[in-house]
Amino acid sequence: MGREDGEDEAVVKARRSTSGLPRAEGEATPERRNPLGATTGRRPRVRTWPAAGSRTRTAAKDRAEREALQQGVRYRRIFVMLLSVIVVVSSVVVLLGTVGLFAETRSRPLTPSEQNQYKQEEIARRWQAWPATGVFPEEVKYLGLDRAQQYARRVGIAPETECGKGVDASVAGVLENHGCVTMLRATYVDQTASFVITVGVAVLKDEASRVSAGEELTQDDRVGVLPVAFPGTVTERFGPDQRQRTGWVGAGPYIVFSTAGYADGRTRAAIPPEEILHSELWPAAKSVGNQIAYFLADPPKVPPCTQGNVC
Fold first, then answer.
1. Taking the model in full, what pTM does it have?
2. Which of 107 and 233 is assigned the larger pLDDT?
């Protein structure tokens, strides 16, 4: 019995030593082998297989990435198309603008309407573009007795004034109502220095305004432009009472007034009516006024093309 008990205890100790319990110092653990010959103490070299759900998640992730990439490609194509359209439209606009600018600026023949506009604008700016001596020349031709050609000589040019201050009150209202811009005046004497003639140029906004004003002007030959006298000259006694007759003529945007009297200062009341009718005074004054109106409204030479004489 004692031997068997001893053998049993030895077997128990051997089992405990292989079960991972602590051993006494110096005691070695016997190496165990499995039936395939691999050491049981080492880690297995077989790869761990992924779980069943991980493959599905990977496929979904790949699919999402592909869809995002395809969507980005679509957006890029749309952007490129829009950019191309913008470039094409801009190019067409620039091309059309260039063609239009070339067509507009290239030299071409003037149309009848453009020719007429050119004439009107040229005539309308003459009172400013010309010097005072251009509006009122130093000498003006007129016809005397027996239709002899004579010359009236300019004595002086008055300062530019408001329309209402250069004419009688009844005439001033009409001019101002139709947009009169300014009044220019100068005084002449005939070739014999017997007659004094004041010419006044009323500048209207345009020809239409001048025509409307002319329809309202009175036919009374006692009112019109106020005389301008220059002290120390033969004209110094020429005033409103010395006016024998007055009149006017239209030319472009201008109304050209004229009035005349005797250089010796005789008043209208002092002259018998029949003498005025048969006197050379008024034909000379009317001729001088008409000549100045003709200078102002003489149609200019119109260039045949928009850029001069070459189309």
1. 0.66
2. 233
